[in-house]
Amino acid sequence: xxxxxxxGNPVEARTQGMRQxxxxxxxxxxxxWYDFFIYGSLAVFFGGLFFPKGNESAAMxxxxxxxGAGFVLRPFGAIVFGKLGxxxxxxxxxxxxxLIMGLSTAVVGLLPTYEKIGWAAPVLLxxxxxxxxxxxxxxxxxxxxxxxxxxxxRNRGVMTSMLQITGTIGLLLSLLVIMGLRSMMQESAFAxxxxxxxxxxxxALLMLSLYIRLKLGESPLFVEMKAHGKQSKNPIRDTxxxxxxxxxxxxxxxxxxxxxxxxxxxxxFYSLYFLTATLKxxxxxxxxxxxxxxxxxxxxxxxxxxxxxxxxxxxxxLSGCLLSAxxxxxxxxxxxxxxxxxxxxxxxxxxxxxxGEDCQATQSLIGQTFNQKATKACERAKAFLSANAVPYTVxxxxxxxxxxxxxxxxxxxxxxxLKASLVKEGLPTKADPSNVNGPAVVALLxxxxxxxxxxxxxxxxxxxxxFPTHVRYSGVSVSLQFGNGWIGGFAPLIATAVVLRTGxxxxxLLYTVGIAAVxxxxxxxxxxxxxxxxxxS
Length: 537
Fold this sequence. Notes:
Elements: H1 10-41, H2 43-50, H3 56-72, H4 74-87, H5 90-108, H6 114-117, H7 120-148, H8 156-184, H9 187-194, H10 196-200, H11 202-214, H12 220-227, H13 235-241, H14 243-278, H15 283-297, H16 299-311, H17 314-339, H18 341-349, E1 352-355, H19 365-370, H20 377-387, E2 393-395, E3 402-405, E4 408-411, H21 415-424, H22 438-456, H23 459-466, H24 472-488, H25 491-502, H26 509-526
Parallel strand pairs: 1-2
Antiparallel strand pairs: 1-3, 3-4
Helix pairs in contact: 1-5, 1-7, 1-8, 1-11, 2-3, 3-7, 3-24, 3-25, 4-5, 4-7, 4-24, 5-7, 5-11, 7-8, 7-24, 8-15, 8-16, 8-23, 13-14, 14-15, 14-17, 14-22, 14-24, 14-26, 15-22, 16-22, 17-18, 17-22, 17-26, 23-24
């Protein structure tokens, strides 16, 4: 990249060039995350559009599973594009990932629904999600490697943390676009066709991002390595076949990335689902509160990145994991208390018991997700109660199902009768806006975002310093995408499925808490400090 020379001031010239490099890398990454998160933000719509009707809980799980499908290929994208990045160069590889991501997202906006083409609709949707995941798998590792190989050791944490912001900005941008469209359109119009617009906007964003990235030059460390013939001939073999490098990958995944992944997706996605689907907060308020929290919390990526330049990466990240393990459940209890206090009060005094012989056979996660229609009365009752955040227990019994609400026994499952009984006991059908404590909700969401920034802010610098130059693109990408793709990406789906199984709206958080706690322990034992390490080695 040609940045020009500022006469008599090489430091200023270098600073200006670094700013251009960060800006160009970050803008493209923001666009890719926007693409990826548009689906996540609209997942609540996709259950009714691309999957069979008849079981709302199953449709919602299916839409979350399809969101998770984008994560399945992320590690493979890391392997494929990591190999290209370590052999042909950083620049052209993440140009390719940008193009694949943008086109896949735009096509989602053109897909026919299940009503029009049947099962071909979810098949095509999953295929496009897989392509998106493949592209993202190679994108972030390439961008953070590119920036770090231009940065100086003393500010590497700050420079790479600016790229860490892009995931949050991409989500923020997707929320703003969706909120803007929904405020300008009738709800029926948005549900019918307006949801397609954010996907189609990707074409314009793709063109802008490609133009910006085409102006970049190649990484100087890669050019130097290639000039001396030191680049890897087979990065896949050198990453997975070399015991030393493979050990670094495993330590990175389970010592820090896994914790970052579950906390990030819980804070950014599951919190939104929890507010809207579980607590019945209206979408406008939920999006607004999360948007404010994102705006307030985003600078902390850079703050913790800068802190890691001063005191080291390891314990800044692991402190975030420990605090997350300790605080996430209380934070979500606080969200319930402040976003829908009537529901919290109702849950404290209601006692619902499901009895019946067929309730003893529990359905698998796959069965819950892809069963076209919940046929058993017990499964339908569980789905209804979970969808309304009503806690329940299942007791062994014989014969036909019966539901007991605060001592009143109702034979069979009649949804209207059960709902009337629960409303009589104080169940709110939606959050009362006059009782929502908005500032408190924002403060709690802000706390979730800050916990994320503690781990994620220094992570880019840590990973690029961890791996040697000849396999850096591969090592960073594989570590990030196995942790985020297979451990963190399914966190919203697993949490929702656990809630459906247990009837406890907070039970799904145990997955995040457990992973964060294990990461803190393993990271404390296995991670070594990387701050200031020579990047040319």
